[in-house]
Design goal:
Layout: E1 3-8, E2 17-23, H1 33-49, H2 52-55, H3 59-72, H4 82-91, H5 101-113, E3 117-121, H6 122-125, E4 130-134, E5 140-141, E6 149-150, E7 156-160, E8 165-168, E9 172-173, E10 186-192, H7 198-216, E11 225-227, E12 230-234
Parallel strand pairs: 1-4
Antiparallel strand pairs: 1-12, 2-10, 2-11, 3-10, 4-7, 5-6, 7-8, 8-9
Helix pairs in contact: 1-5, 5-7
Domain B3/B4 tRNA-binding: 64-217
InterPro entries: B3/B4_tRNA-bd, Phe-tRNA_synthase-like_B3/B4
Protein name: B3/B4 tRNA-binding domain-containing protein
Length: 235
């Protein structure tokens, strides 16, 4: 049983919100052929829908770029929003990276729905309550594939209530809580910003759950939900 209180700091309510889902008992160590076909179909779908030239004018991409500029102080033409970077890779003719089945499902969802996707190994953070808040100056984060970083107070983080950082919002996940071949229980967080509709966050999380259940043997007992302030997540 997974039960966690998921909350958003009052200073960030209205600025960020998330779709949250849980899938349990996945087999994340091998790729069923059918899953690879679904991912390839998703790549073909987005290539038929978008182009590199027109991407900057897509309203969903614009909402995340505006959030980078105005809330994070990041130039989104120099550091692309995570989902835009993935989509640009695909539109240049490259494949999505092969990491492990759950990560690859998340990446497919990200380019299909144009939202950042975070996937976290529930057992790695012990199912502790979670909060989205501003970081403290000097707080240390251990990002996937990079040295530890010292954060500043204008950065937004998803962390356990006792300080384990899962994510720098909405673009960088933690080495500590990442998907591994042995991961069994997965927390899905789809990151929203002003202008994004709730259905997009819910549908992207549901897409991930559906594929994990169908191809990785997972099970899900609750539908994804949106958190704008605080909510109990039970699965």
């Amino acid at each position: 049983m997974f039960s966690v209180r998921f909350s958003i700091d009052v200073r960030l309510r209205g600025k960020v919100f998330v779709g949250v889902g849980v899938v349990r008992n996945v087999r994340n160590s091998e790729y069923p052929g059918g899953l690879l076909s679904v991912i390839d179909d998703t790549v073909r779908e987005v290539r038929s829908r978008y182009s590199l030239d027109s991407l900057k004018d897509d309203p969903i991409i614009r909402y995340y770029r505006d959030f980078y500029w105005h809330e994070l102080g990041i130039d989104p033409t120099k550091q692309r929003p995570a989902q835009e970077a993935l989509l640009r890779r695909v539109l240049r003719g490259e494949d999505l990276p092969r990491i492990n089945p759950m990560v690859d499902i998340g990446n497919a969802a990200s380019i299909k729905y144009l939202v950042p996707i975070g996937l976290y190994d529930i057992d790695s953070f012990g199912g502790r309550d979670l909060v989205i808040s501003y970081a403290r100056d000097g707080e240390v984060f251990n990002p996937i594939g990079s040295p530890r970083k010292s954060l500043t107070s204008n950065q937004i983080i998803l962390s356990t209530v006792d300080g384990l950082i899962l994510h720098v919002y909405p673009y960088r996940d933690s080495e500590t809580t990442k998907m591994r071949p042995e991961t069994r229980n997965v927390l899905i967080v789809t990151a929203g910003v002003p202008g994004i509709d709730e259905d997009r966050l819910v549908n992207s999380a549901q897409f991930i759950i559906n594929l994990a259940v169908k191809y990785l043997g997972g099970n899900a007992h609750v539908n994804p939900t949106v958190v704008r302030d605080e909510r109990d997540i039970n699965a």
